[in-house]
Amino acid sequence: MESPDLNPIDNLWQDLKTAVHKHCPSNLTELELFCKEEWARISVSRCAKLVETDPKRLAAVIAEKGGSTKY
Questions:
Q1: What range does the domain containing 53 cover?
Q2: Which of 16, 52, 59, 60 can pair with 69 through a Cys bridge, CB separation 3.0 to 4.6 Å?
Q3: What domain of life (predicted)?
Q4: What is the domain count for the chain?
């Protein structure tokens, strides 16, 4: 079973993508700068929350027999 719902880093990548997109980088240098800035802004509590929801994500994936979940 390889469900992306089991990988909390996907949530962080989406957070980063959304935050960087708001800056509208116009070149690779800006993209790199904004990525680094926004990555540094991701809070420890956000990461902890994703880890805390692991049991719920696991249960949801099992219930869906590996299919998509709300996570």
A1: 4-63
A2: 60
A3: Eukaryota
A4: 1
